[in-house]
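During the second year of the project, the team shifted from modelling isolated chains to modelling whole assemblies. The rationale, set out in the original proposal, was that interfaces cannot be judged from single-chain predictions alone. As a representative example for this report, we include one of the complexes processed in the last quarter. Its constituent sequences, exactly as entered into the pipeline, are reproduced here:
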Amino acid sequence: MNTLDITVAKSNGNFNLKASFACEGSGVTAIFGRSGAGKTTLINIIAGLIRPDSGSVMVNGHILFDSQKGVNLPPEKRRMGYVFQEGRLFPHLSMKANLLYGMKLLPKPERVISFDQVVELLGISHLLSRRPATLSGGEKQRVAIGRALLSSPSLLLMDEPLASLDASRKSEVLPFLARLPRELSIPIIYVTHSVDEVLNLADNMVLMDSGRVIAIDTIETVTTRSEFQSLTGRGGGGSVISTAVLSHDKKKKSTHLRFPGGILKVPFVDIPIDSPLRVRIAPRDVAIALELPIKTSYQNILEGRIEKIEQDNWGFMMIHLDIGCPLLARITPAACSDLSLTEGKDVFALVKSVSVSIGKRLILNELKK
Amino acid sequence: MDLLHLTPLEIESLRLSLWVSTWAVLGSLVPGIFIAWVLARVRFPGRALLDGIVHLPLVLPPVVTGYFLLVLMGRHGMIGGWLYDVTGFSFAFSWRGAALAAGVMAFPLFVRAVRLSLESMDRGLEEAAHTLGAGRTRVFFTITLPLSFPGILTGTILAFARSLGEFGATISFVSNIPGETRTLPLALYTLIQQPGGEVGAFRLCIIAVVVALFALMISDFLARRRIFLMHGEK
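Output from the structure prediction step:
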């Protein structure tokens, strides 16, 4: 049974949304796209705040909306937890009353998460008697998440919960967000346009552009697609690789990570051996060599094969490599023709240790323990 | 010639004015909030007409409004007559009629203030309450109503002040009966008409100013207190 199964069409002036996808399991599914791609419209449709023109929305096998059967449950009957971008805490109520607002409307047997559990999970016990006006942006978002969780939702919808926060406020919330999927079994739909948030939080990704779903798959797969690269811009995207910590070399301040293509050397990361870790490598940080280079500062020399070569939006060549897992390299057309790269050719991919971005998610989780 | 010594007639008119205005405002609260909510939130054909009717007393000569009230709500009026036959209740020539006239005249001011605060409210908060499982009625009483409190307060004070000053509709609907419908403005008018009434009239003017100032200061205090609670600043 799918967690979420949605097929909807909605037109509003010049904007047309036509989306269809399904996702399963209890992890975090990121809806990723530029602003204006229809991400927020989509989760407002799931929450029942926007009525689609046609289609259907099903959550855990329950029909929430079906234009043919004439079903349209109001938002209050859908059991969706919604965390809005701007928090939307009730300004006339204390934090405690905000948190209890949804919970009190639920009969006791249907409450799947306790007040104390949520307060502990989000670290908000010291805020309970305060009013929204006296809280920082990060604290407000944590309370907003708690309020949504306490309504015992069957699905948690989050609309760019970090987008309105500055970097230091983000770090007040991110570790708590990362704990949610591990400690609760509530599936999360997470709308964002931040690659870092995707890398840190999500398991699966729905890629949206101009009101259309253009891809849905695991993070590792979607991030190697050229549509994702063209959405994130010249420096943004990158292939995401799932790894596990193999060993540490404290003397050299480096950590070795195990991944399907062998070993990846990265600057020292202070987490235990065997911990899973997700890393991201930007295409422009990957160089290609035809022969095994000697005496080079590149710490990672990975054998692979060219799967596909295509020109990207900026006139560069995007080389799709298979190094045991997909990896992207962006090089100039000149470099491509100098090396006479063709599809099917065996090459070496060169990656500097310092250009491997480490996902914060698991590090933060380990630190908590 | 004593400016501080009020005559029984002046005390009576002050007491009556406060009484009539209080009832005018109390009677406006529920229908006023309801109509403001309908105008701010519901889209329906005839909305502009309802809006116009609510605002009529603001633009019509008060005497016309008073005359309408007489025709509609008098003891032989279309609604008033029926009401008297069925319940024995009558507005005609009593303080109740004065309260009705004051209430009708102040109604648009009250509705405007409440509607303004409803329209400027962040609808997202109501949406958030819906997603947390609250139905429309609950959202109205737990979110919409408390958050429009500043508007309701402003509207109440405005309506109260307007009711205190009500003259034209009152005198044409329920006449100028001492102890029953002779409110402060009517007493003032009566005194001006009498030779030697100037001192009394002046005293009533001072009372009117003091009462109005007092009302404004209370409303200001309550509004500040509210803002402090909601936003943490004055």
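The interface with chain A takes residues 122, 124-125, 127-135, 138, 142-143, 146-147, 149, 229-233 of chain B (CB under 8 Å). The two ends of chain B are 45 Å apart (CA to CA).
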